[in-house]
Amino acid sequence: MLRKIIHAIVFVTIASMVISILVNNDPDDASKQAAQLPALLIAALYVGFMFVMYALPVITSKASNAVLASNETITRAPIQFAQAAYARGDYIEAISLYRTVAEDEPDNRLPWVEIAKIQNDQLEDSEVAINTLKTALEEKEWPADDAAFFMGRIAEIYLDQLGDKEMCSAILEQIIETFPESQYSASAHHRLNELAKSEAEEKAQG
After folding, report:
1. Which one, of 119, 99, 120, lies nearest residue 110 by Cα?
2. CB 109 within 8 A of CB 142
3. Are residues 67 and 18 in the same domain?
4. What pTM did the predictor assign?
5. pLDDT band at 4, cuts 50/70/90?
């Protein structure tokens, strides 16, 4: 309270000085203008002091709050909630959140891929993971690269988790036939060659 009273007294005093200078100002009297200069300088310093003490902190606080609010909005994106649930090991909750993202962003293949990854890697249910990817394929007409990606992931699970080389090869051949121009067609060719080489080596050893 005392500080406010002191600032009020100083403000009134300086304001009175400035008003007096403006009223009695004589542009033709150089000596009078020189004498008024210190008072104007004191007024300017006081205004600067008040700005630094009171106005600047308010401006800085509002700017910081705006940035924090913006960051808070970003971190509340649904897919980041799903990623957070996965990071803390709450896989069922993560799957539920990823499904919400899939509904809200039907052109985004990532939530489907992440759901299948959790089901396959963390819940160790490869069949369910395959069904998830198949469901994603049937949900909509995906661009060639996305559809080929889903099929390639299904083929990997059949091979790596279920040991079904025949089904894996059939899916890879389907990728090559259905999506010859996609970026995954060459990968499917390479994978088929690896499988054929592996089978030949096993027969030679057997």
Report:
1. 99
2. yes
3. yes
4. 0.62
5. low
Query: Of 16 and 136, which is predicted with more confidence?
Result: 136
Q: What's the rounded Cα separation, in Å, for the pair 206 and 204?
A: 5
Q: Based on the fold, state whether residues 26 and 66 are members of the same structural domain.
A: yes
- 169 contacts 194 by C-beta, under 8 angstroms: no
Residue 29 is predicted with a pLDDT of 56
Rounded Cα–Cα distance for residues 182 and 160 (Å): 23
pLDDT tens for 78-88 read 899 999 999 99
Contact yes or no for 172/155 (Cβ under 8 A): yes
Q: How far is CA 130 from the centre of its chain?
A: 28
Name, in order, each residue with C-beta under 8 angstroms of 199's C-beta and a sequence gap of 6 or more. Answer: 165
pLDDT in tens, 33-74: 555 566 656 656 665 656 555 555 557 656 555 554 444 444
Answer yes or no: is 131 within a domain.
no
Is 175 domain-assigned? yes
Whole-angstrom Cα distance, residue 155 to residue 159? 6
Cβ atoms within 10 Å of 169's Cβ, excluding its own: 19
Distance in angstroms (rounded) separating the CA atoms of residues 80 and 97: 9
